[in-house]
Amino acid sequence: MIESGNTKILLDSGVKIGDPIAYPTIEKHELKDVDGIVVTHAHLDHIGFLPHIYSGGWEGPTYLTKPTFELGNVIISDYLKISNPKDVTRDGVLKMQRNSKMAEFNEEFRIKDLTVKLQKAGHILGSSIIEVSDGRESLIYTGDINFGMSKILDPAPRENLHARTLITESTYGGDNDIFPTEKKITTDMVSSIKETVKQGGKVIIPSFGVGRSQEIMLTLDDYMHSGSLPHIPIYTDGMINKALRIHRHNVIYCREELQKRILMSEDDPFKSKNFFDVTSNQMRRKIMNSQESCIIVTTSGMLNGGPVLRYLERLGRYTENKMMLVGYQVEGTRGRDLQDGKKELDINGRKVPVNLEVETYHLSAHADRQQLERFVESINGLENIFIVHGEPAKSRQFNDALKEKYKTHLPRIGEQFTL
C-alpha cells in the first residue's frame, strides 16, 4: 500500500497458491480507504485477490493493461473453479470486470493526488513496471521483471528511469543466481528432447499457463522449422491454448519482429501445425497410451495441480520419458520435490513412483542477480530499496549486496515506512 496526502493505492493484489492458500493480510476497514489498485500482470500472485476484494464490497477502480485484463480473466476463472473460495461471489467477479480501467504503456493517469505510469516489464504479455509520483516523491515498483530478449516480448527498459524509492522483486536475487543465455539453455534442451525421442519416450514440460508456455511453444516450433528438432506433436493442456489466442489478438504488445511475421507474411507462429490442443479426457488418455513420441506442455508449472499430475501418474513410471522443469519451483511444491531428487510423490492421496528423468532448465521470465543489480544501478536519484518477492535467503543476499550504497530494507508483513 502506498499513501501520500489523502490518497492510498495498492500495487498488486495476489494470492499464494499452496495448502492452505495464503491471502494478503489487509483488513476490510483498511480497504475502505483505498482509492485504486494498480496491477502489474496476470499471474495469481499479483492479481488473484481481486475477486475477494470486490466480493467484500469494495467499489474502486483497478488499473491494468488490456492483455493483463484479458489474461487475468482466464487465470482468475481457473483459480475460482479449482479453489472455490467461499468469500467470492458472482456479483463480486462482475464488479471486478466492470471496474477495470485499461491503461497503456508510457501514458500517465491520475488516482487523486498520485500520478501513475506503466512501463513494459518484459515478464509476460502486458506485464508492467509501475512508476508513482505525488509531485515531490517518486517510486518505482518492479512487479516481476525480465531483461532478456524473448521470442514474444521486448526486455524491460533500463533508460530514463528516475526515483528515490524502489520496491523490487528478488526471485533470483541469490548470490549464485547467474544463468547462461537463453540460447545456450534452449540448445541444451533441444539436444535432450532429441535423445528422448530416439528412445521412443515422451517429454512433459510443466509450465505456467500464461507467459512461459507460449514462449516454449514458439521456441520449440522454430527449432522444428529449422530441422534441429524432428516434427513431433506439441500437445498443450490446461489454459495454455486460451492464453495463446489472447497473445495472438494482442500481438501489438509483442515484439515488432513477431508482429511483422504475422501481419506481413503467412508465417503465423501462433497457428503452427505442430500445436495440438488437448480438449478432453479421452484425448489425454490416447496421448498417454500411444507409442508415439511427443512433447506435452501443460499446467501447472510447479505441479500444484492441473493436468500435469495425470501425465505424471501415467508416464512417470517409465524411464524412457522425461520431465523438464522450466520455471521457478517454490519450496514445498511437488516441482521443488522433483527438482531436489524425490522419487515418490503424493498425488491425490496416492504414492506415485517417479522413474522418468527430471531435468531443470532456467527458462525463467525473471531477471537474474546480475540483471537485477544493473537495473538498480540504472535508476537515477535512487536512495531507498525495499526488497520483496523472494525466498528469504535470496532476498537477504540481494540486500547484503546493495546495503553499502543504498538504504535497503527487508520489510516484514505489516511494517510501515515513512519517506
CATH-defined fold name of the largest domain = Rossmann fold
Q: C-alpha Rg, in Å? A: 22 Å
Instruction: Calculate the mean pLDDT score and round it.
Output: 94
Number of domains: 2
Order of strands in the sheet with the most strands?
6-7-8-9-10-19-20
Instruction: Give the N-terminus to C-terminus distance in angstroms.
Output: 14 Å
Beta percentage is: 15-25%
Task: State the helix count.
Answer: 14
Structural class: alpha/beta
Instruction: Specify the oligomeric state.
Output: single chain
- CATH architectural arrangement of the largest domain: 3-Layer(aba) Sandwich
Sheet bearing the most strands, described?
Answer: 7 strands, mixed
Task: Please tell me what the overall shape is.
Answer: globular
> Helical percent range?
25-40%
What are the segments in which pLDDT stays under 50 over at least 5 consecutive residues?
Answer: none
Number of strands: 20
Could you give a short description of this structure?
The chain has 419 residues and is of the alpha/beta class.
Which features would summarize this protein structure in a list?
20 strands; six-stranded parallel β-sheet; single chain; alpha/beta; Metallo-beta-lactamase, Chain A; 2 domains; 419 residues; Rossmann fold
Q: In terms of topology, how is this protein built?
A:
Elements: E1 2-4, E2 7-11, H1 28-31, E3 36-38, H2 44-47, H3 50-55, E4 62-64, H4 66-83, H5 90-98, E5 100-102, E6 109-111, E7 114-120, E8 128-133, E9 138-141, E10 165-169, H6 182-198, E11 203-206, H7 212-226, E12 234-237, H8 240-249, H9 256-263, E13 275-277, H10 281-289, E14 295-298, H11 308-315, E15 322-325, H12 334-339, E16 344-347, E17 350-353, E18 357-360, H13 369-378, E19 384-388, H14 392-402, E20 407-409
Parallel strand pairs: 2-3, 3-4, 4-5, 9-10, 10-19, 11-14, 11-15, 12-13, 12-14, 15-18, 19-20
Antiparallel strand pairs: 1-2, 6-7, 7-8, 8-9, 16-17
